[in-house]
Amino acid sequence: MKPPQPAPPGARPAVLQPSGRGPAAGGDALALAHFVRDAVAAGLVRDVLHLRLAGMAGGLRQGHHQRLVREALEPLLRPTRARVFELPNGDIVAVAPTEGRHLRSAEEQLAILFAAEERLPFFRRRLPEEAAALLAAVEDSLVPGPAPAESPGMAHLGIAPPPEAQALTAAELAAMERGLGHASLARFLVRRPVCRLAPGDAGPEVAWEEWELGWPELCGALLPGADPSLAPALFRRLRRLVDRRLLTELGRPAEARRLGRAGLRLALESIAEAEFLRLDTALGPEGRGRMTLGLSAEDALADPAGFGFARDFCRGRGWRVAIDLDAAELLAALPAAALAVDLIRLRWSPALPGLAAALPEDRSRLVLGGADRAAAIGWGWEAGITLFEGRLLRPRG
Length: 397
Prior knowledge:
Layout: H1 23-42, E1 46-51, H2 63-77, E2 83-86, E3 92-96, H3 102-113, E4 122-127, H4 131-142, E5 166-167, H5 170-180, E6 189-196, E7 205-213, H6 215-222, E8 226-227, H7 232-250, H8 253-258, E9 262-265, H9 274-289, E10 291-296, H10 297-302, H11 304-316, E11 320-325, H12 330-333, E12 343-347, E13 366-369, H13 374-382, E14 387-388
Parallel strand pairs: 5-8, 7-9, 9-10, 10-11, 11-12, 12-13, 13-14
Antiparallel strand pairs: 1-3, 1-4, 2-3, 6-7, 6-14
Helix pairs in contact: 1-4, 2-3, 4-13, 5-7, 7-9
């Protein structure tokens, strides 16, 4: 059985979603997530013994083996403030104070119990240093299977093109443009909450909502089977046209009032369009103060002067400006002036922890997107990030 992959201290109970494999074990998993979160927040030091029974042969997960495991752990519970958690997949986690040899005694008993095994199914961890890996194991027990893989091309926009997708042609682009003339984009808008989530808080708090177009649905409706990302120049033209249509709809006075605290991601060229200026006017100073405008790092690299103008113009009008980095490696490539924004939005990937040194010192300016696993939220906490967007976030109320 492979040991759990390390993953940062993160997911709180309101974030994790039980898989329904037994209410008692599910409750223990959430209780363990609570415990780990509090340990991280308080700097509480604890030793952890993790029994990976889920990956063992079925015969070793029978009732009498479970009883023998509990008997081995029982001496640990009586004289100490230890706790034992049973996870939905059959794993058992014991958490004990660091003083004394009770945990070591339990390990010795378990080593005898599993002496015939080629590899002992348990190992030590330490809180708070290894909270990340422990929370990842909790998440795996509740939500089995790996997170869906990112699709190439327009992954940062949520597009997962079908296997037979073809590059967009100029004729097809013209057909899509004609289709846009009759389509209402409102039904393709997706709202994604950005939540403030700090280790000591009771749960996620919605800071604002990102209003994004559902590109797979929109492209599927306009021209099924075409993948605009395979023709970047044509896609850029399409993106500008879609931005203009979206800004026209949102710029209507009733729609502008309905936006509230919202975020929009626009192509750099769209800032100079008349439709953006109409939305800017319809929002007024108060409305602009509630808005977050996202511009891409690729645009900043391709046109630094244009990016600087758009950023300064929008900030001068009261918008909050964010720069979107689909890959953290872009941080090193961006000129310092491009980072003179209110927010920097990163997208989670397993490679991100190795690039932590490139992050700005003021972590309150960072938003971590793609927080679809406990590993992402956990690493974000370790890095000092408290703003997240992703599937794991389920704000209360």
